[in-house]
Design a protein that fits this description.
Structural class: alpha/beta
Strand order of the largest sheet: 3-2-1-4-5
Strand content: 5-15%
Number of strands: 5
Helix content: 40-55%
Distance between the termini: 88 Å
Largest sheet: 5 strands, mixed
């Protein structure tokens, strides 16, 4: 029987998921180095895909448990931007359908920008509903970052087109009409919260990139408003913009010195 070419083997492997597939069992007997190299690459890919699947299943356990109690519309809620010296704090609430499957989803901070953008589009296309809240630096200064985050989360919930019947919230405690659960580091434990984290992160990053076009000296496109060395140097050389948080150090001290 004629042996398959390397191209044929590669094309066939792309459609195989099971380690006990007859083609895989035969390929293991193929002594050609090229065939074994292709088999090794396929095995690594399968192991990686299985790990991503297992992690997704683990992150979906809260949603499964909540749905088993009769809840349908579970909103994951998260924020991005509590720590920066400039820009808004952005919150998101996301209700995912029961059959949602996105292996690799995780806390937005653990994902590359490319992966976040890709997942953002998947979530936008498949979510039942998405709500976003944006709280300005002026409001952050007025009511403090903790209260601003809570306000933003409530705004995100109110922006949902589908009324939720349960909330999964990253770390914060909210007073709402809905039953809820607060999870420390929830964006690494819940698919719904991770989805909200990605929506909030991509939304805020895009806003900061737009600000960079107006204020290039502060390098907002790369530091996203955080107090990097280049940002601090720009503050000293160029001063404070309307997008900086005047209640945050060292900007707070700079404002006091001006007075």
């Amino acid at each position: 029987m004629k042996l398959a070419t390397m191209k044929e083997i590669k094309e066939t492997l792309e459609g195989i998921k099971e380690v006990n597939d007859p083609f895989i069992l035969e390929l293991r007997k193929d002594e050609r180095k090229g065939a074994q190299k292709l088999l090794g690459a396929w095995e690594k890919r399968i192991v990686k895909e299985q790990k991503l699947h297992d992690h997704f299943v683990k992150m979906n356990r809260y949603e499964i448990e909540i749905r088993s109690k009769g809840y349908t519309y579970i909103a994951g809620i998260d924020e991005v931007g509590r720590g920066p010296l400039a820009g808004p704090v952005v919150t998101a609430a996301v209700i995912l359908p029961e059959g949602f499957y996105l292996p690799g989803i995780d806390d937005s901070k653990k994902l590359s920008e490319k992966k976040r953008e890709l997942f953002y589009e998947v979530i936008k296309n498949e979510a039942i509903s998405i709500g976003v809240g944006v709280i300005s630096p002026t409001e952050i200064d007025r009511i403090n970052i903790y209260q601003a985050t809570k306000k933003g989360m409530l705004e995100a919930i109110n922006e949902l087109s589908q009324t939720p019947d349960y909330l999964l919230i990253d770390a914060m405690k909210l007073t709402t009409p809905y039953p809820s659960q607060s999870l420390i580091k929830g964006d690494s434990k819940s698919v719904s919260i991770a989805a909200a984290s990605i929506i909030a992160k991509v939304t805020r990053d895009r806003m900061m990139k737009e600000l960079h076009e107006v204020y290039p000296d502060y390098h907002f496109a790369s530091n996203m408003g955080y107090g990097t060395q280049e940002h601090l140097v720009a503050l000293k050389e160029c001063g404070i913009t309307i997008h900086h948080r005047k209640s945050f150090s060292p900007i707070k001290e700079m404002v006091e010195n001006i007075k």
